[in-house]
Structures are given as C-alpha cells and as structure tokens.
Amino acid sequence: MAWLILLIVAWGALAFGSIYDWARWPLLSACVVAGAWGFARRVPHERRRVITPVLAGLALGALAVGFQLVPLDRHTLRAWSPATHTFLKQYNLQYAMAAAGDVSDGGRGFGPDVPAGPEGPASTGKDDRGADAPRLRHPLSIDPQKTWLGLALLGGFGFMLLGLARGIGGRDLRVFAQGIVTLGVLMSMIGIIQKALWNGKVYGFWEPINKGAGAFGPFINRNHFAGWMLLALPVAVGYFASLVAKGMVGVKPGWRNRIIWFSTPDASRAVLTGFGILVMGLALTVTLSRSGITCFLLAVLLSGFNVLRRQANTTKGRLLSTYLAMVFVTAIAWAGVDAIGARFGEVDWKLGGRAGAWEDAWRIHESFPWFGTGLNTYGSATLLLQQFEKATAHYVEAHNDYLQLLVEGGWLVTVPALVLVWLFAREVRCRFREGRDDRTGYWVRLGAVTGIVAIAFQEIVEFSLQMPGNAALFTVLCAIAIRRSSVKKERRGFSRGSGGGLLCKSPEAGLATPTGRPPSAQPPGRYPLHHQEAHGPPVVPSPAPAVPALAAPRRTTTDAALAGCRQTTPGYRECTGRPSHGRPASACRGSATSGRCNSQGWRRAPEPTLRARTAVSTTATP
Questions:
Q1: Cβ atoms within 10 A of the Cβ of 512, count?
Q2: How far is it, in rounded angstroms, from Cα 389 to Cα 370?
Q3: Fewer beta carbons below 10 Å: N end or C end of the chain?
C-alpha cells in the first residue's frame, strides 16, 4: 500500500502540481483507489473501525457545499442572497435575460440601490411589459461547475483520508518515510539544476502562461514548491530521529564507541537520511520564498523542541537538535544571506499586494456573508468585484486560504470546516495519549503533525493547498496523524520494552527493569534476554517479611538510592540526574549500558509492586 501512496504523491508533485485537467483527474482517481484499498485491506482489530468524528466532520462539510448546489428559483435566490442575484445578472447571460424585468438588487452595494417592495416586478412573476417572466432555477453558487469540481476534490481526498487512516500499517510508515526522503531529494535536485539552467521553461519544454510566476522545480510557483517541502521535510526529520534513536540503543558511552557506531548499517541509513534532509532544506531556501523560509524556521524549531522534550538528557537529543540547527544555518548560507535579506527587504506594508487582495476578499464576504459565492469560485467573483489593481492584474486567489474559504463558503461552510478542524485536532491528541506507537510510528506521526502545522501557517499568506498535488500529500499526512496503532502481540513469557527489545517476565513481579547489571543483583521483575544468556537465570530473593500495619519504615540504602529519582504520578519515577554506579539500576530505569535516563520515560509499575520492592530492604521498628 505504501508504494501506491508514494506513486500518488509523486504524480501529484511531478505533474506540475496536478493543476491541469490531464493530471488532476488521474490523481483524483488514484486517491479514490487508495481509499478503497484502505477500506478493503485486512487490518488488525484495533484499526477496523472508521474514525467516526472525522467522518462526521467531512460529511457535514460536504453537505454544506452540496447545499450551495441546490437549484433555487430566481425569487427565492434573490430573497436569500440578494448579492448573488445581482452578480448573476451581470455574469450569467441566461440569468440576466430571465431577470430583465427586475429593477432592484436588494441594496447590496454594487448595483442600483432600489428596494424591492412586495408588489414589485420580482413578486408578481411578470416583466416590465406585463408578460410572464421565464422560470429559471440557479444554485447559490455563482459558478456551479467550479463548485462541483471543488466538491469532487473534497470527496476524493476525504475518502482517501479515511481509508488510509484505517489501512496504513507500521511497515507502510517506514516505506513511505523512506520514499518521501528519496522523492524530496529528487525534486530538490530538479529544482536546483533547473534554476541554474533556467531558460523560462519547466523541465526545459513546458512554458508557463504567467511569465512572472517564478517557477521552481516541477511547480509553476516557487511558493507551492516550498509548500510541498514544508510538508515533506518534517516527515523526513521524524524518520531520521527514529533511525538515530533506534540505532544508538546499546551503544556504550564514550566518543570511541559512538564513532564506531557509524560503521553499522543503522548508521548508514541515518546518515543518508540526514543528507537528504540537508538537500531538501537547501532547495527550499534556494526558492527565496519568504513564506517558505519563515515556515521552514518554524518547522525546525518545532522539531528541535520535540526532540529535546523527548530526549533532553541524552546524547541523541543533543546531536539531533544540533544537526537540525546546522541544516537551517547551512541552507541559509548556501542560498546567500544577502539574497535572502534583500528578498525580505522587499516587503512593504502591503505585503507584496496581499493586503489589497485581502481587502477585496473581505468586502466580497460582506456582500455574501451567509452562503458565500460557492466553493472554488473566488476567481469568478473577482472578475466583477475586484478593486485592487483591477487594471493590471486579476486575483484568482485571495492569498489567504482561510479568508478565501470564508468568501466562497460563507458561514454556511466555514462553521463545518471549523468543527472538522476541532474534531481532527482532538483525534490527533487522542492518538498521542494512547501511546501505542513504536519508535518509528511515534516519530513519523510527530513529523506529520509538524508538517501540518507548518503548512497551516504558510496558508495565511499563500494558497499552496489549492494545488492538488500538495493537497494529496497533505491528506496522507493527516491520515498518518490520526491513524490508530495496532497493539503488538507478545510472545508467551516475553514482552517488548520501550526500546524495542524483548524482556523476560519474572512470575514473581510485573515491574520492568531493563538494566545493565547482572540479574543476580536485580530485584524480581523483567530482565533482558541477552543478560540472561550471559549471567544465567535471575536470582529471585526470598519473599519479604510482612510489615505490620503500624510499623514505621526506617530509611535504608535502597531509599537513599532513590534520592536521585523523584515521584511524579503514582506508579512512575523520573530520574533527575545520572545514577551513580553504587545506585541500583532498578531505582532509576536507564540505558542498558550507560545507566543514563531513558528518553522513553518510565514504564508503568503497579503501586503495590513498588511498595513490595521497597519492603525488601526495609525493616520494621516497633
């Protein structure tokens, strides 16, 4: 399934963003096939159910858009949306002929302001000569054909979102992450080489209609290339973090051992992925897209924060954070600090014309407040209603997707969209709280969420998600963010620790203590298999003596050993420093070799088990 997803993403990006009909419809068809495959695929029990809240949000939004396409008679349309009636009289010849007897536009501000009385021509159904006016039905959308296209894209991408959220498995995540790094490097090389050899044509043969669009790579607009990279880069960073975290498990402390680790296959994959991240960052910066560079910095900060929050006291966390900072600094230096500074210096209070476009968009929204102009009809509305730079340019987009959605959908579509966003965010939060992901699943999910946040900020000043190719990748990231993880089946007598290794269960207690000390020095619990092979089976101490109910436990060496730990919530202990060699490894759970605090946190241990363990080394005093 991962290969089909990669094929969809590659086609959407390499085919000029799939903005042309010959690329858009195959992309949409493939999205439907991927969604159907996700629903038909056999998956574990935990992933069989459809994510109902997101399904309800998508259905509510689709119904709102469908309501814009319901044909209404001319008088009902005029009563519900006077601005639509007036606009169609100037935009649609057939509607204008049917409404030739109307003398009022309802006072909406861009036509004769003559209020319609109950006995006017609009209420009698006759024209100004007394003849019956022709019956004509028209939807609330000013351009129904474009709205149908928008609804088809919404349905196709929504269907793929639900199907992939059900069908993507752990192996699919790893294959997809590797593929997205490879595809990102390929697109980066295309963009960098094409810029050096630019002859005004994409791929050397495709000449854009808009000469000043500033093409980069396969995209006609460099901002849209930057938007695609903002989606792909965080996923690559998340996969890179999972490779480093997984590969360095068991590496002994010391720079010699860490350098030797670079000769392992895990290190080779991590190095190649890190190099791919650097190339992708260079390509994004070379676009000189102001929104892209700003959101690139935001993505780096978010990724670094997540790494430090997860692995604050480990060498891995420091190395990953340092590398991310180096990637951004290197990318800026490669593109040229002077060139980037000059690019940002061009910004004035009009934000490159965007402020004027926003004013026009808000004014159009005031004319169509409740039902909007119709999904995907902003370019049609500005043909007559644009005021900013009307003589020199035609703004087909508002350069702010949130404002454009408000114009096209009105409150009818905007409110369901806000509900959908809230439901989606709640599902993402639930997936993180469940904590069922393995190491790769967690980091890739975190990278997907970071990419969604980054593109959400870019959409304040751009419209990258209106490119079907970018929308397809965005849909895949949303599916990764809300997918349910499977509960892995454990082998009998074994369980899987947070580091991915198998731990042997001791029947006397259920406390997990993966440490580097011999089992003979361990309390009863779970022990790594490789330690049992080296040291033999664990030595279980005799049962602890019963402690009287009124006995006052005396502080012992075990209590002193726990001084470096602090109780957080019942059943958890958190290490506050590096354990000394004299401290039992069971006190502060750490790495199997270095004894450092494990970045995965503390495994859940029942409160009675903790008390029983402490009781082993305490004595009762009368």
A1: 19
A2: 27
A3: C
Domain stops at, among 428, 453, 482: 482
Instruction: For residue 458, give the amino acid letter.
Output: Q
Q: Is residue 112 part of a domain?
A: no
Q: What pTM was computed for the model?
A: 0.76
- Pair 302, 255: CB distance under 8 Å: no
Q: How far apart are CA 328 and CA 307, in angstroms?
A: 16
Q: Which of 432, 460, 482 is the last residue of a domain?
A: 482
- Residue pLDDT, tens place only, 464-501: 999 999 999 999 999 999 999 876 544 444 444 433 43
For residue 545, the Cα-to-chain-centroid distance in whole angstroms is 54
Let me know: does 134 contact 75? Beta carbons within 8 Å: no
Residue written as tokens 């420093």? 577
Distances from the Cα of 135 to the Cα of 75, 98, 99, 129, 424, angstroms? 10, 7, 9, 16, 44
**Burial, 166: exposed, middle or buried (Cβ in 10 Å; 0-12, 13-18, 19+)?**
buried
Spatial separation of the C-alpha atoms in residues 176 and 375, rounded to whole Å: 32
Cα–Cα distance for residue pair 422/614, rounded to 1 Å: 45
Q: Amino acid letter at 253?
A: P
Query: In this structure, are 403 and 512 located in the same domain?
Result: no
* pLDDT for 238: 93
CA distance linking residue 121 with residue 180, whole number of Å: 62
163/242 same-domain check: yes
Please give the Cα distance from 102 to 93 (Å, whole number). 14
| 465 and 384 in a common domain | yes
CB 414 within 8 A of CB 436: no
- Domain extent for 585: 494-616
Based on the structure, what is the number of domains in the chain? 2
CA 457 to CA 393: how far, in whole Å? 26
| pLDDT tens column, 21-76 | 999 999 999 999 999 999 999 888 888 889 999 999 999 999 999 999 999 998 89
Q: Domain check: are 235 and 347 in the same one?
A: yes
Q: Are residues 357 and 502 in the same domain?
A: no
Residues constituting the chain:
622
| Pair (460, 576) in one structural domain | no
Q: Are 18 and 469 in contact (CB under 8 A)?
A: yes
Three-class SS string for 361-408? HHHHHHHCCCCCCCCCCHHHHHHHHCCCCCCCCCCCCCCCHHHHHHHH
CB 63 within 8 A of CB 419: no
Nearest to 165 by CA among 63, 59, 54: 54
> Bridge-partner residues for 202, per DSSP?
206
Using CA atoms, how far apart are residues 262 and 268, in angstroms rounded to an integer?
7
Cα torsion 503, 509, 514, 515: sign: negative
Residue 135 lies inside a defined structural domain of this protein = no
